Amino acid sequence: MTPPEHNPEDVAIDAWTRVLSRAPDQINAPRESDAELVPLPGDANACLAITIDTVAEEIRAGLYQDPYTMGWVTIMASLSDLAAVGAEPVGVVISASNPGDFERSFEARAALGMEEACRSLGTHVLGGDTNATPEISLTACAIGTVPRREALTRRGIGRGDAVYLTGRAGAGNAFAMARILGLSVEDFPEERYRPAARIAAGVALRGRATACMDTSDGVLATLDQLMRLNARGFEIDGDWPRFLCEDAAEVCKRSGRPEWMMLWGPHGEYELVFTIPADRVEAFEEEAPSLGLEPVRFGTVQERPALTAELPSGMKIDVDMRPVVDLTTAKETDLRLIIDKYEEIGRSQGLE
Amino acid sequence: MTPPEHNPEDVAIDAWTRVLSRAPDQINAPRESDAELVPLPGDANACLAITIDTVAEEIRAGLYQDPYTMGWVTIMASLSDLAAVGAEPVGVVISASNPGDFERSFEARAALGMEEACRSLGTHVLGGDTNATPEISLTACAIGTVPRREALTRRGIGRGDAVYLTGRAGAGNAFAMARILGLSVEDFPEERYRPAARIAAGVALRGRATACMDTSDGVLATLDQLMRLNARGFEIDGDWPRFLCEDAAEVCKRSGRPEWMMLWGPHGEYELVFTIPADRVEAFEEEAPSLGLEPVRFGTVQERPALTAELPSGMKIDVDMRPVVDLTTAKETDLRLIIDKYEEIGRSQGLE
Questions:
Q1: DSSP conformation letters of B58-99
Q2: With an 8 Å Cβ cutoff, is A57 touching chain B?
Q3: Is residue A87 located within the same domain as residue A181?
Q4: Could you list the residue range(s) of the whole structural domain that residue B39 is in?
Q5: What is the CA radius of gyration of chain B?
Q6: Cα B245 from Cα B331, distance rounded (Å)
Q7: ipTM rounded to 2 decimals
Q8: A25 is a domain residue
Q9: What's the pTM?
Q10: pLDDT digits (tens, 9 = 90+) for A258-275
Q11: Do residues B177 and B105 share a domain?
Q12: Alpha-carbon distance B138 to A10, whole Å?
């Protein structure tokens, strides 16, 4: 099943995938897993997980000021894709494109962010490439391994599965909104924005989750994508504060914006959304602490392919991510205006 | 041994490597191989080869007009790094940053170049990332495998080793100079510039070559780098036409520029420079055809760390690549002027 083209980034991806042939032994189909999965040569039971991510748009938009953050996020974005397939990292290679300055202060700071991000998850930058370009663009390619039968993908969601988050989310949107709305840097300093990839959680979910995907595009966009790929919908709990990390709750309080926006916006973080079969929910929740997991149950799979939120008022509404995703990829560059539009779209759909 | 910082790109790389720690099981030291080498998990006798390359500067300079060429070169640049360590590719992931256009004609053409480059070497694009940016930047990360004991690196050159090229070189500089000097497109159409990575040659050189490096920065810059890393020099044959591919010879004829410039310039191709121990030269040359190799013998290793060319006149001169490399990374943007300066520097050193 090919999901419908529903936003400009998907259209761009389709333009590539129409021409590029798949490797005959590749395990995943396009878009169906966070990292590419190919058999590990010489070991029929293992596969390589490979993923590449470029951080350029967020830097251009001015969200990150400190090259440390740029380096940190670049590494974590790619490691998070390994986490979502249940892989353990072998290492990362990077490509750094930036204007050269005499003191090389950019490189020193960005490298430190990369180094500490890798170290926090027990991996290393193996090497890379540098280019002199007018704008900053950082790319990381992470390589990992996962037992072949236990690799997690975005597909495989079953009837009535329970939906979880690996932890409270919203840090990504909270940070972006704090910057764009002009919250004081003292209230949310950039150095507090250090989202971590959930490598250990991904490993723990091997053979347990029926599907898994990271929240790098925001929690609700993740559910939307999983819905399209699995042709099954979700009924989720609309008691939003339950799902927000501390920073996200704080930014809502200070900005006066509603909590659901922290899950609705496109600047995600690196939690994992995953599904557990209904008949294993009890056992899973019981063993979770011993696996190092603190899963946050978020809802249930429904057969109707819609994203339905049950609001605290008891009312159930279907939310449609399409206008949000379209806005993300539109040419509008006034980010404050985009935030207003996000809120407007959500409210018009009945979010509260 | 750390080679001296001798150009701005090395300075940038040093700024990164000073901060980034090595993976404890990483086989290569920084800069000592074209691809990063790490043990393949679960197989003590094999290692993964991983490399990443971004093509942005050449595109910005206007050298490539057709997105097909941009895609082709991006794939080949990374596969060539695998070739230089003797690895066979598992696959490639790509990251494409470019302005979106409505028809997605850029993506279709660039994807075709990537697809055909991969197909010509029996590998595939496994997946990737897309970003909307004002300028075009294409990154490929190639992953391969090579038996651990047979991985080729840039170090290991022995006393009196013979130096070879896998084939006649100069295609890269020929193409760049044809474009910059305004040779007619009919004389050297862009579609004739399809340099191929030497994967099969790299595999054949496993366990045979003492060192190997690709010519992506130009043949003489490759020798210069090998010299610095091995603290041994080369005495090379200055009968330049012997080493030039047909296109390079043709561009010399049409432009009136000297042949050595095709090896001197920085826009290389994907031949391999490699060394063979003196006592195995005869056997190597005998078995080369059965290995699918047509090696071009270029010179001999000398203990003095200098790059010495024996000119047809019988005169021996030492050539110094440093001013050439410095010019490559200087801020000058008039490429025609840079070509004139390349020639001037070479002539002042006695090249003819």
A1: HHHTT---SHHHHHHHHHHHHHHHHHHHTPEEEEEEEEEEE-
A2: yes
A3: no
A4: 32-149
A5: 20
A6: 30
A7: 0.93
A8: yes
A9: 0.95
A10: 999 999 999 999 999 999
A11: no
A12: 18
